[in-house]
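Key idea: predict the complex, not the pieces.
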Amino acid sequence: MSIELKNVSKKFGEVAAVNSVNFSVKEGELMALLGPSGGGKTTVLRMIAGLEVPTEGDIFIRGKRVNDISVRKRNIGFVFQNYALFKNMNVFKNIAFGLKIKKWKRADIEARVTELLKLLGLDGLERRYPHQLSGGQRQRVAIARALASKPGVLLLDEPFGAVDAKIRQELREWLVHLHKDLNVTTLFVTHDQEEAMEVSDRIVIFSKGNLEQIGAPREVYEQPVNEFVARFIGVMNVLEVEVRKGVGRVNELEFPAPTQPDGTRLRIGFRPYAVQVSPDLALYRYRAVLRRTYFLGIMLRLELELPSGLTLRSRITKEEYALLGLRDGMNLSLQIRTYRVLAREGGSLPPELQTAYEHPPTIAEHI
Amino acid sequence: MAGTIQSNLKARRTASRRGTEEPAFVKWTLITIGLAFALLFLLVPLVNVFYQALEKGVRFYLAALTEPDSWSAIRLTLIIAAISVPLNVVFGLAAAWAIAKFEFRGKAILITLIDLPFAVSPVVSGLVFVLLFGMQGYFGQWLDDHNIKIIFAVPGMVMATIFVTFPFVARELIPVMQATGSEQEQAALTLGASGWQTFWHVTLPSVKWGLLYGVILCNARAMGEFGAVSVVSGKIAGQTQTMPLRVEELYNSSKLSGGTAAFAVASLLALLALFTLGVKTWVEWKTRRNYELAQRAEANFQSQI
Amino acid sequence: MKQIGVIENWATQPAERRAPAPRDPANNCVDLEPDAASSMNGFPERSVGEMFAAPNKAAGLLILLTLACLAGGLPRNSSAAERSILNVSYDPTRELYQDYNVAFVNYWKGKADQLITIKQSHGGSGKQARAVIDGLEADVVTFALAYDIDVLATRARLLPANWQTRLPNNSSPYTSTIVLLVRKGNPKGIKDWDDLARPGVSVITPNPKTSGGARWNYLAAYGYELKRSNGDEAKARAFLKAIFKNVPVLDTGARGATTTFVQRGIGDVLIAWENEALSSVAEDGKGKFEIIIPSISILAEPPVAVVDKFAKRHGTEAIAKAYLEHLYSEEGQEIAARNHYRPRLESVAQKHAAEFPQLKLFTIDELFGGWQKAQTTHFDDGGTFDEIYQGSR
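Result:
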């Protein structure tokens, strides 16, 4: 394990920023700490770096407990959100700073800086001062500076937060490649779920100081442990149902729940792609009107209104939309192909509910 | 059509100008008053200092400056500044650092305390030290028993000077340090720098212009202070007289040449003022230029992308 | 890359400097511009210059120079070989003691074969007394009036209460009196004290609270009215009130008041020490001022004393004593007379008789019962002066 956190908590005065967090990062892994702002993810990153001291719990880097080791000696590379480049030093000196502090030989420093300039595509910029660089260049200098003394771990705080949306996409791919080339354990903080999904091997999701879920992007998308994760990663239809006679109901929608006693309230969640529609009113069990269509590139989002007034979101491809000949205002039939029972934020479910439910019965099946 | 629109626009523009701007005569009256005041109350006295100082010729001027008691006053002034300015630099850095980078109980009190010397009359500042260290003061008996002289000696004068120049460095540094934030320092820490290395390589360079500015103002005040120093000096000619005190003494002398000699010493203080103004302007220009360069470079890159 | 040469830091760098050059130790000192290549090693020492570039280095040099100056020029009086005494005095005696100090240093060199220096400090008599009480270590004090020395004895026990008996003539080696100085041609027609109370006459006199001279001025005018009205205190108070109504500025010391009148040209008449008036006429005058001798005035006896406590501490008792005694010698008296103080020694007095006209003089003991009493009745807080001055505003 490259990094390991055991029951780590952090309080700022009376305010708990991080509550008893446990997770580990494998050697060479690229991991995202994801969550809304104020979720505690940056605090976790800063505790790993040694810029904050945990109130409780232990942090290990490469098997060694580092709680009492100062930030100077942890051999980590840290990239700040606004890069924190030394304004009074040019690019060369910024990158060389850590090496000079560590008393590298002059020739070695020069070789290392030159290597990094090349690796990060900064050749020719070594004499520039930070204010003479573009946002993307600044970020690369910050990364080069963090990497200079070959740290065991690279930590990045919102690395793409301060650059334009246009360049952000480029930088993401670039980071993936850089990580592949260097194979250094990398942990970065982001509040952008798309960014986390795209870049990282695994994602740790935080909310209000709690670790909500940890897993590969696909895993957290398809199997969110609770409503918070479900809503935070992508779009999800969430409904609250009440169980009566083994069936959870909300308006006209019914979800089988044979094990639950009467009166139980459950949260049901399903992704828009799980909502299937057809102009053939006889095909699926429920009726709905197509209120509005949103174009999202190759995918389309449909806003569907059920007779009871309930609104659901669906997502289909452009081709399917054309094939079905859909139009706004059309009457459709629909079914919910798969759904999950969701725990409330911060909670988890009894094991019997932790599965995805496939294919609720269609009208045809009923008959 | 186009013509009417044009004239319409023009009319509206002049109308709006009339709405927001004062008539020309108000503008020129204000400028004249401002300039006349500056000329009358600032420039004329300054020129007069040099005129009076050189009234009896350069030889007399130099003789007046090298006369033992005046020379001693010049030296003492330099000594006091050389002690109090560095101490206030250290204090100013520490205080500004604490205020800009930490949250602590009593921060508001510290900020207020730093400003205290600005609010207190210099005479009172001086008397405070007499009340503390004078023979009738709280520590007077003890100091007298141990034969330690503070009041009416250089230590007391240094203390009074430090007191009145206390705010200059800190006041200049606090906003600069607050604007810089602490990320650069944290970055240096993550790169393995010690606290001292961080301060020396990162913090100090980023505040150097603010610091220089503060030092210049602090020095000008340290050399020019009259009120507080006068109270604790004892005015012993050739021993505890600083330049401003010497000027007063010479001016009060009934000897015919006294006034000219007074102005000779005063001219040094005026030169110090001019030097201070020069450096101040240069520092301001430099900071502004750095800023503009940064802006221009930024714009350059925006256009290149 | 090249087109970015517009940025100044770049443009001013010589091309050959940009390429990493082999380290040149000499280069480190001269090269004030930050230069990545040459500052690569020796990092800690180097970066002092790198962030405090040229101008700051100059400032550093200045500080070093100042410190060097400092080391070479610490106050000289600390050397043990050279004895030094401090004479804390009042304002108008500055020139008197400048002359006398030169003479005494010579005298002492001949007598004791010892080279000494004498330091002077001048200010309002009352203020100076306060400074000595607060610890200004005077070996001798030469004040405007006995009360200011009494205070040293009563409040701080710096010398015995009977100090005034230790030297002849009530410890006053010279005397003076209070006269009136007017502008050339005496445009306001001032002849005597009663003219000062006339409306429209602007009178300059310092503040009796801080200045000894001012107290003499006050008592002289008060005594005049007291004599004229056969001891009617109420009339005397009313008279003083009328005079202070005419005072536009209260300086803190006699010398400040003289400067106000002579150099700043404020006021029609200055109530002054005779010595101040005479030296003003002699030095600045060129006929610009005239001295008016009033019909009657006060005999001012500025006293001198050794401050035993400090002289003992400094080991200068003998010098301090001789310093004051020599004031009574022919040489001392001659210097006093030359500085317009009335000498005590008959031989010297006769020589300067022309300069010091005879006038009727009363003493403080005779009219006011001595300084202690005069001080409490007139000048302490809530005394007659406060009453008069507040009433006259």
